[in-house]
From TrEMBL, chains A, B:
Gene3D superfamilies in UniProt: Winged helix-like DNA-binding domain superfamily/Winged helix DNA-binding domain
Protein name per UniProt: Regulatory protein MarR
Pfam family, one: MarR_2
Domain (HTH marR-type) ranges: 1-144
Amino acid sequence: MIGLMARSSGAELALLLLGGFHTMVDEVTVELAKRGHEGVRPVHEFALRAVDAGADTASELGRRLSVTKQAAAQTIATLEAFGYVNREPDPNDARRKRVRVTPRGHELMTIGGALFDKVRSRWAARIGPEQLETLETHLAQLTERRSFTAEDLQD
Amino acid sequence: MIGLMARSSGAELALLLLGGFHTMVDEVTVELAKRGHEGVRPVHEFALRAVDAGADTASELGRRLSVTKQAAAQTIATLEAFGYVNREPDPNDARRKRVRVTPRGHELMTIGGALFDKVRSRWAARIGPEQLETLETHLAQLTERRSFTAEDLQD
DNA sequence: AACAGATAGACAAGCAACTTGTCCAACCGT
DNA sequence: ACGGTTGGACAAGTTGCTTGTCTATCTGTT
């Protein structure tokens, strides 16, 4: 059966990883919309988190997310239009625009984080907290040289 | 430190999953290009596998990948242009076009599968074969009601 | 046999999130 | 003062999806 010959446990693993990701983000996205944050997509959530974690220029965000600085700038523009960040000139470097997370952006991250944590808690209840931590540890080991990309966060 | 307040272990888990996925597919995509399969993106590989596993119409592929039948049809058109599938009328249902994987498509899946398996083997060597199987079992449990989507396979 | 509803697919247009290309201003090291 | 690098703006293009609309075909019912 030629179909079976094409089976690949490696390809199936890739799909399991992707499925896991989308199981989480789809639920969070739907729920965020219900909580007054319509139109938020995974790339917004994760870009916002990266900004808040220190990637506060378009160039830096691009590096952090492994996309071009133009793509990062576009995401920042969208976040600004939504009211989640604002931009202001860097007093020490006139080339730069500093990106700041607004209170509304913090609200988004707080609600979003709680939603992600809720999904994670259900997963911990399902397979055991220690098993989940082991899964996370393993994934961290296996991906440790990779930065995450917004391109990967495509809806 | 407000940055730390926004930390979410659930959001970090989502990124670990995505990072794992892209660690695998990026390496496979690069290597496939070296082996004469340029321009192949993850959506192509996984759509081809779904066709080969039985989703041999655009409507069926759309269901299998959780995208619209139009999106599936566009992917099939791309696969056909690349020479990985061909389409022919269904003798029993004039509405339908049956999608067949070509020998070149089988070659892509064979090479791609081996590449995915190679990455998986390295991961097994890294964390232990039984640990990897446990990780896979857990992910399968946690995502079992979800079908994987080509939208998720965005490059 | 006729008909209504469902399904498959084609086509067009639009959207989101990226890319490349180009350009200019500002900074830094020599 | 100058050359190289960096940050960002802008435009245009690409990819992979979406929605909307339409037609042909199939199926079940009457």
